[in-house]
Fold:
Amino acid sequence: MFVDTAKVFIQAGKGGDGAVSFRHEIYVDKGGPDGGDGGRGGDVIFHATKNLNTLLDFRYKPELKAAPGKNGAKQNKRGRSGEPLIVKVPMGTVVKRGNDIIADLVGDDEEVVIAHGGDGGFGNAHFKSSTRQAPKIAELGEPGETFEAELELKLLADVGLVGFPNAGKSTFLSVVSNARPEIADYAFTTLSPNLGVATIDKFNLLIADIPGLIEGASEGKGLGDAFLRHVERTSVLLHLVDAYSNDIAADYKTIRDELAAYSNELTGRPEVVALTKTEGLDDEMIGMQVDEIKKVAGHERIFAISSTAHKGLNEVLRELKMQVETARAKATEETDSEDDGIHRITLSDDQKAQAWTVKRVEEENRPVFVVRGHKIEKFARRTNFEGYENINRLRDIMKKMGITHELKRAGAEGDSIIRIGRAEFTLVEQ
Structure:
């Protein structure tokens, strides 16, 4: 069964908690801290493979969870890191988080970390200093990234077959390639995309047969809306038009309009047109139909073929070969020219992590000061708010980062509520 969309819940592993522990040795009255750090949580990793061609497995396994890290232990023992969860997906899988694309796996054996595991918390041995000989501070492990993701499979192919239902796409693919799609004399025989490899002059063409389009396909009518995404990856479009159409120019234009409505980019995609089922027509009739298409197509790449009679197929394949080679060369050229020599000033990853903001909001007739920023929120997530020493450490970090100064400028006082992520506490210990 072909499935090209799925929704999954992704959860990377939580980091292990740091330990609070002190050495207990004979003849040693007060041993020093020896609480170890927690292990890091496991990542969720997607691994693209050419051996899969559907997202069906995710319909039965909608939750992907990596293992958590182990807690730290006494004698400075660090907790074991959680095992990563490696998930195999088909080549061409797009991973979306909300409206953002976070991964696009197009190469065989390509791997991408989809969700990062949480860092392990520091044990109290980490906080020993000349002024703090017996710290009772230990951090919590940081939660792993957790979110719902939408998976989309966009087939990777050189050529995309488009056209009305029963235009002869499946028959063409079965004749020129190793594919064996279902073929019948009625519309919508093809209910899912089919892939086949055609060889011409020792050149392989990967061809995708897209289910037939109808007017309104870009808006969800018929089957087109569900499968038009597979056309986006193709280098060249092979537009098949039934030679027995009563208005062949209108049929051609309808499909072109639907492609444009789905994506403006598709209108600039190289196109080859093939007039199908010509075995029962004389040359005069074929010529008339070809001329009608030329009037609206705007190019001369129009061929008359018969898949059942094996007529004109090599000519079409050679034209497709030339168009694919040109498209590949253009793509390589565009990649090489991406560096335009313009110097752009951007923040480094470290600068972005250090950045923070303070915002005052009114809630229930009281001011609440909301602090946001990657680094400070991370410290807050790792703070155990059940111990006053842990909270005071967070206050010290805020002071060193300049956050406390900005809070006071915004009107915060000692008993003011400070919110960082889900944590709330006062500016000064009460």
In short: The first strand starts at residue 5 and ends at 11. The chain is about 25% helix and 25% strand. Residues 313-336 form the longest helix (24 residues). The chain has a mean pLDDT of 83.
